[in-house]
Amino acid sequence: MIKVLLAQDGRMVRGAFIALLAQENDIVVVAELAAGRELVQAARRFEPDVAVIDIDTPVHDDLSAIQQIHEELPKTRTLILTSTWRPTIVRRALDIQVGGFLVKESPPEKLVSTIRELAAGLRVIDFDLAVSAWQSPPPPLTERQLEILRLAAAGDGVPEIAARLHLSPGTVRNYLSSVTTKLNARTRMDAVRIAADAGWL
Fold first, then answer.
1. Closest by CA position to 153, among listed 32, 73, 79, 61
2. What whole-number distance in Å separates Cα of residue 183 and Cα of residue 142?
3. How many CB atoms lie within 10 A of CB 9?
């Protein structure tokens, strides 16, 4: 049996995925949760063959969690679900050896076949997607700056960002100030807009 962990924020969509996979004799969903902070803990507990993870929620940095899963559970393959392809996300996901990408609008049978391919040790990456990601110019921001800007875009204030990333509030303010300067933005929210329009968030 192929053990699957499913991390997806939408409860109805998650339920539909579970119902779909329940029809397969060789696949069992061992854990289902909203994408986010519990992802690594759930992977440790259930040790799935394939972790299917929706990364469209800006509140959480699921790619960092995926990287941690790869480091701690090298036998667990990861499949990213998304509805929008952002070059910076694709590049970073390729760098951390994500097993596969799948557009959420794909036919249901594609999800099933991709899970089987990943469990068999294959990597399922759309060639055109990978090429377009590498050909896009990289953002002028560091990974840490992007991480902080994503949290700011999700509505977190400086104290919340500092607590989440184990930084001092002053350090977070310095990061946000340097981001604003780099992007020639007028304000922090203007920097968020510029980065979002460029597809960096």
1. 61
2. 12
3. 15
| C-alpha pair distances (Å), 106 with each of 97, 101, 117 | 22, 11, 16
Residue type, 41: Q
The token pair that represents 39 in the structure block: 């992802």
Sign of the torsion formed by the C-alpha atoms of 184, 189, 104 and 65: positive
Using an 8 Å Cβ cutoff, are 179 and 173 in contact? no
Residue with tokens 């340097």: 178
Contact status, residue 146 vs residue 201, Cβ threshold 8 Å: yes
At residue 99, what is the residue type? G
Do residues 90 and 129 touch, judged by C-beta distance below 8 A? yes
Contacts 24+ apart (CB under 8 A), 168-172: 172/148
Residue range 26-53, pLDDT digits in tens: 999 999 988 666 889 999 999 999 999 9
C-alpha to C-alpha distance for 69 and 88, rounded to whole angstroms = 20
